[in-house]
Write a structure and sequence with these properties.
Largest sheet: none
Strand content: under 5%
Oligomer: single chain
Number of strands: 0
Order of helices and strands: HHHHHH
Structural class: mainly alpha
Helix content: 55-70%
Distance between the termini: 54 Å
Radius of gyration: 18 Å
Shape: flat
Amino acid sequence: MKRVARKANVRPGVHILRHSYCSHLAMRGVPVRSIQALAGHQELSSTLGYMHVSPQAIEEAVRVFESRRCKGSGEGVGMWRGS
């Protein structure tokens, strides 16, 4: 583990695995409350501290949103206006 941590330029120890575990679950779309339960955290803020989402995952999330644009028929407008 120490050798791998040195190569990855991170602090050695198994603690880094908790970060990877939570981050990978988040990037695969697992709900944050489920990640919280799986990680055994009592506070949601602890879970959020372990989740690190890659820039690629953020770009994919934006693409999902962009692919759901309205097509001019008024579709989805009520959702945004709270009706």
